[in-house]
Amino acid sequence: MALGEARATVYCTGRSSRLARGVPRKQGDWRFDLSGRLETIEETAERVTVRGGIGIPAVVDHASPGAVQKLIAQIEQEQGKLGLLVNAIWGGDSLLEFSKAFWQLDLQKGFRMIESGVHTNIVTSRFAVPLLIESAKKSGGGLIVEVTDGDSYQYRGNLFYDLAKTTSIRMAYVFARELRRKNVAAAALTPGFLRSEVMLEHLGVTDVNWREAVAKDPDFAESETPVYSGRAVVNLVADPNLFEKSGRVFGTWALAEEYGFCDIDGRRPHWGNHMQKKCGDAMKPCDDAFYQYWAGGMTDTLLANWP
């Protein structure tokens, strides 16, 4: 939707097509099971178009290399270029087991989480990047965004969830390292408390009366809509100094402060400040000192000019 506001052409991809809907959720399904939700790629594409862009739905299983290759070929044929890839591929909420230690976890659920949150992003980036590189030769630059959870390497309460979300941050760094001479940047982006359709439903409110849920969860007062993340991406890709940010992770709140954009309701929620007040010095976002430990080493020393 935010990219639509910026008049972009957006391919909205995934398996959540209207063509595959119609099977109701079973009674008793866990509240964050996404398999039977009503939101679809077609609806998303329509919302992009209504806001001034061009939304194009495309049914894609991002765990399938063949399906992703077909998508990229379609984009190249129809648009002739690709300037931005946002990897927000995730379906792991129904697989989470926060109340269990790693030796008690269901391995099948855990490995499915890794597949949905890591493998899909790697597959998609693998086949999208060649077109990004070719497009950047003409446009002056491209961007990959890895959507994660949290702007630090803090413990995330579940082994597989921790691996998936910290890997997104690391992937952005590795992508940036290997693309640094290709005019394509990469960054990780985290929302704060996301006021998604799933969360609204879980708290028994809508996007109109969402404030009523603050009584149930005080942290919800500082929540944000998905459009906040979208506007963060729009501002990132338009930043003339984008490559100074390449390889790092950013919170929506920090980018909103820097670029001056607001959420869809005109607010500028700052999850970082909120959690700082609540948890104090326990909140330690990745900073310059942190990234110094990532640079150098054997590979950067012996293969400094690769690739």
Describe this entry's structure for a reader.
- There is one protein chain.
- This protein has 307 residues and is of the alpha/beta class.
- It has a domain at 87-190 and 224-302: NAD(P)-binding Rossmann-like Domain (Rossmann fold), CATH 3.40.50.720.
- The chain has helices at 2-5, 41-50, 65-79, 107-139, 159-179, 197-203, 226-238, 252-259, 271-279, 288-292, 297-302, and strands at 9-14, 54-59, 84-87, 142-147, 184-190, 249-251.
- The chain has a four-stranded parallel sheet, sandwiched between helices.
- Strand 4 (142-147), helix 5 (159-179) and strand 5 (184-190) form a beta-alpha-beta unit.
- The longest helix is centred in the middle third of the chain and has 33 residues, at 107-139.
- Residues 25-31 have low confidence and may be disordered.
From the 3D coordinates, which CATH architecture of the domain at 87-190 and 224-302 would you assign? 3-Layer(aba) Sandwich
Overall pLDDT score: 93
- State the assembly state of the protein chains: single chain
State Rg. Answer: 19 Å
- Strand count, sense and closure of the main sheet? 4 strands, parallel
Could you name the ranges where pLDDT drops below 50 across 5 or more consecutive residues? Answer: 25-31
CATH top-level class of the domain at 87-190 and 224-302 = Alpha Beta
What share of residues is helical? 40-55%
Using the alpha-carbon principal axes, give the shape: globular
Q: What's the arrangement of strands in the largest beta sheet? A: 3-4-5-6
The amount of beta strand, in percent, is 5-15%
CATH superfamily of the domain at 87-190 and 224-302: NAD(P)-binding Rossmann-like Domain
* Secondary-structure content class: alpha/beta
